[in-house]
Structure formats: C-alpha cells, structure tokens
Design goal:
40% of the residues are buried. The longest helix is centred in the first third of the chain and has 36 residues. 65% of the residues lie in helices and 9% in strands. The protein has 14 helices and seven strands. It has two domains: 215 residues; 163 residues, Alpha-Beta Plaits (2-Layer Sandwich).
C-alpha cells in the first residue's frame, strides 16, 4: 500500500480552510438560490423539468456538503451517519439528474430507447443510496463511481443528438453537461485511482457542478422565455378568434377553419422535430334524435357541455375545436397513442357521468335515450400528412360506431 504524506504548517492549514469555507459557501449559496428559483418556476409554470432540476440541485449540494467534510466541521464527528449520507445524496443526485435529462430533453418523443436507458441508469442511483443506508459501502462506492463516468457521457451524447435535431435550449444544456462530464469524470477516475489526488481532482466535481449550474440556469431561463413566447402566441390567437371568425357560436370553441390551420402547422412541426402528435375526433352518438328526446333542453346545450368537459379533461396547451354538427376534435401535441387514448376515455367517462338523458317528449312511446360518445384516436405516423391523419380519425370513429358506440377506438397508421 502506498500512502502519500503532506506536511504543512498550522497557519497554512488554517488559511486554506478559510479559503475553502469561503469558496464552498459561495457555491452552496448559489446552489440554494438555484434550488429555490427552479422550485418557484415549477409552481408557476407546472413544468416538471424545473422540479426535477431543483431536486437534482438539492442532492448535489448536500452530497458536496458531506463529501468535503463540512457536516463534520459544523455538527461534529458522526462517522456512520456521515458515510451513509454521502452515498444517499450522491445516489439521489445521479437519479434526479437522469430524470431531469430525460424530461428536459423530452427523450420520450422520438428517442424512446435512449429514454429507457437514461432512466434505467438513474434507477441505479437509487441502488447506491440504498446500499449506503444498509452499510454496503463497497457496492455504493463502485457503482457510484462507474455511474459518475457513464451518466455524464450519456448526458452529453443525448444533448448532442437533440442539438443536431434542433431541439430548443439544447445548446446550453450540451455545454452544461460537458462541464459536469469533465468534473465528474476526473473525480470518478481519481476515486478509481486512475488519476492522482490533488487540488483539481479533489474539487473537480464541485467545479463541474458550479459551471454546469450556470449553463443549466441559462438553459432553463431560455425555456422559460420560449414558454412565455408560446403563451403570448396562444393568447394572441385567442384574442383574434372573433375578429378572424374562427369561433363556433354553439360551443364557443375554435371552429373547423382554425383546426385545419393549427393542425397543419403542428403536423409540420412534429415531423420536422420528430416529436409526437395525436388527434381525438369526438362524435355524439344518436345526435340526430336528440331534439325528440331532450324536451326543453337543446342539442346545442349538450355540445356546450361536451366542450366544457373536453377542455377540463385535457392540458392547457391542447386545442379543443368544433367541427360543426355533432363533432369535436382535440389536438394533443407531444402526446403518443397510449396517453391520447387515456385522454379520450377521460372525456367519454366524464361526459357519461353528467347523465345526459332524454325522455319521449317528442311523442314517442315511453322510450328514453342515453347520450354517449364515440371517439376516434390517432397518432401521427411518419408517412402521415394533414389529410391522412383526419381521414384515419374519421375511420376510427366509424369503427367505434360499428363496435356498438360509447367507446374510444385507436386506429394505428399503416407505415
């Protein structure tokens, strides 16, 4: 065994400790500010990327706090607890960092295999934390150091792929992960005895986290500006509905003219960016008979109620539109078939729970009519265009009718 011995005077050591406390105090203060800032943005925007980043920042800060002995300096020696907390927080840092990468870069949209790989490796971070709590320090040490090499490299690779694809904010994200990758790689290689122990390797992870945080702040701020811009764009569209005659008078929803223009734009964007896009086509069953059964109510009241349910059952960025007559459409950007089918079922079930039922006020023989929905669900395929997507959604509705109505049917594209 080789042991390196370093001699220094007490004055020199005291001076160095003051410098360390000052520099790390600045770093911890910055990370705390980042944690609170990103958490505030999460509550404001409801974008989970900010929540995952705040948890990653918290874990990274606490890991560095235990790693460099500040817990011992402030709270005294507690070897078992200090050692366990070291592995708990590094494991959580790896786990939340992986989730943040997957969510911020939206790897589910077009990079599903890479998304599963990133999340699977992130799950190993939880194994590190559990191993630390159970006292399996050798396992925690080896696994965390190898993950410290693999995950930053994977983060850089995924950011580079998204950068090439033109994904918004990916440039800042790419640069941020290069800094973390260099720092994490140096620290991991030092732990594995592939690099010497010196000032730079000891503090490489802290330096990497600090520089990464600066560029991730820029990336998150850039996303915030883009979200604001998109919100302003939607608000302008909303404000111009009436002026451009794009509103259906019965439901208050954007009409077919708006649907065709907006869906055409979103189809082109989704194909260029290789992101998901789904469409729901909603048809009111037995709509032609409603006038005979609803009594004092009107068919338009049913459509207005359906419009309210559809808007309440979908996300803020989704577009609920009227196609005239008894049909509505819902555009779901960034949503695949499985999630779209769940959204369709939410609308159908909530509509059924409202209990739209009519008696025979039109003079029929004691009959009653339960109003239900047939919903066609389609996802944009690589060979789809606007017309083929709409045609397939219409065929999906027809299939729902054939199967007995009051159901949602997904119709796959033929690649």
């Amino acid at each position: 065994m080789k042991v390196d011995v370093f001699l220094e005077t007490s004055l020199a050591r005291d001076s160095q400790e003051k410098i360390d406390f000052f520099l790390y105090g600045v770093l911890f203060g910055f990370l705390a500010a980042m944690f609170l800032y990103s958490l505030a943005l999460f509550f404001s925007l409801k974008d989970k990327s900010y929540l995952f980043y705040s948890l990653y920042t918290l874990s990274a800060g606490l890991w560095l706090f235990f790693l460099h002995g500040f817990s011992k300096a402030l709270f005294g020696q507690s070897p078992g607890t200090d050692q366990a907390m070291l592995w708990v927080w590094v494991g959580l840092m790896l786990a939340w960092g992986s989730v943040f990468v997957a969510h911020f870069l939206r790897l589910k949209d077009g990079l599903a295999a890479l998304n599963r790989l990133v999340l699977a490796l992130g799950a190993l971070g939880i194994v590190v934390s559990v191993a630390g709590l159970l006292g399996w320090y050798d396992i925690a040490f080896s696994l965390s150091h190898y993950l410290g090499i693999i995950l930053p490299i994977l983060g850089i690779a995924t950011a580079l792929i998204r950068l090439i694809q033109g994904f918004p904010s990916s440039l800042y994200f790419f640069v941020a992960w290069i800094f973390l990758g260099i720092g994490g790689l140096a620290f991991a290689l030092m732990g594995l005895k592939a690099l010497p122990v010196n000032f730079w390797t000891i503090n490489s992870s802290a330096i990497g986290v600090a520089l990464q945080s600066v560029f991730l702040l820029v990336a998150l701020s850039d996303r915030f500006r883009r979200l604001e811009g998109e919100t302003e764009r939607l608000e302008k569209i909303q404000a111009n509905y009436e002026a451009l005659n794009l509103t259906d008078e019965n439901t208050g929803l954007p009409n077919k003219r708006f649907l065709m223009a907006e869906l055409g734009t979103l189809v082109e964007k989704a194909k260029q960016r290789k992101t998901m896009l789904s469409l729901l086509l909603i048809d009111v069953d037995n709509f032609g008979c409603l006038s005979d059964f609803l009594g004092s109510a009107k068919p338009e009241d049913v459509l207005a109620g359906l419009a309210s349910i559809a808007k309440a059952s979908t996300r803020e960025g989704d577009r609920v539109c009227s196609l005239g007559g008894d049909r509505l459409a819902v555009i779901l950007p960034g949503i695949g078939a499985q999630a779209a089918l769940k959204a369709a079922e939410r609308i159908r079930v909530r509509f059924a729970q409202e209990g739209y039922r009519g008696d025979d006020s039109g003079g029929h023989t004691g009959e009653s009519l339960m109003v239900s929905l047939s919903i066609g669900v389609v996802e944009l395929g690589k060979d789809d265009d606007l017309d083929s997507l709409l045609d397939r959604s219409d065929r999906a509705v027809h299939e729902a009718k054939v199967q007995g109505k009051n159901r949602s049917v997904y119709l796959r594209s033929v690649e």
